[in-house]
TrEMBL record:
Protein's UniProt name: 5HT6R protein
Membrane topology, record value: Multi-pass membrane protein
Localization of this protein: Cell membrane
Any one GO cellular component localisation term in the record: plasma membrane
Primary location group: membrane
A Pfam family it matches: 7tm_1
Molecular function GO terms recorded: G protein-coupled receptor activity
């Protein structure tokens, strides 16, 4: 015994599949970005922390080697601004909007006033003086 389907069911099903597919692609991309960032963090800082513990136990690590591992960890901070724009479109747009070196030609430059208003989380305020406050 088969129940006939309403004509709207296949369209709703295909739209929900399309939404699920789009959502899964975004989740996969976010997972990939997070995996790369964490992987870079562990590659950069794990040798430093292992060497730091070893140095505390036996004091057998040369100072120059310890300095190299410290700078390897610092290089991780340099990699983040490179990794984020490669994998995150929103981050790339924000950098292009506010940094002159990353702005495309023809895009308007945001004014200092609009940036300060946007960062202050408030609209224009009436001028307040000490007399009005007291």
């Amino acid at each position: 015994l088969q129940v006939p389907r309403a004509p709207s069911q296949p369209a709703a099903g295909s739209e929900s599949r399309r939404f699920a597919n789009k959502h899964s692609k975004k989740a996969l991309k976010a997972s990939l970005t997070l995996g790369i960032l964490l992987g870079m963090f562990f590659v950069a800082w794990l040798p430093f922390f292992v060497t730091n513990v070893t140095q505390a136990v036996c004091a057998c690590v040369p100072a120059s080697f310890f300095d190299v591992l410290t700078w390897l960890g610092y290089c991780n901070s340099t990699m983040n601004p490179i990794i984020y724009p490669l994998f995150m479109r929103d981050f790339k747009r924000a950098m292009g909007k506010y940094l002159p070196c990353c702005r495309r030609s023809g895009e308007p430059r945001p004014s200092v006033i609009s940036l300060s208003m946007r960062n202050s989380n408030s609209g224009p305020r009436a001028a307040t003086s000490l007399k009005n406050v007291l």
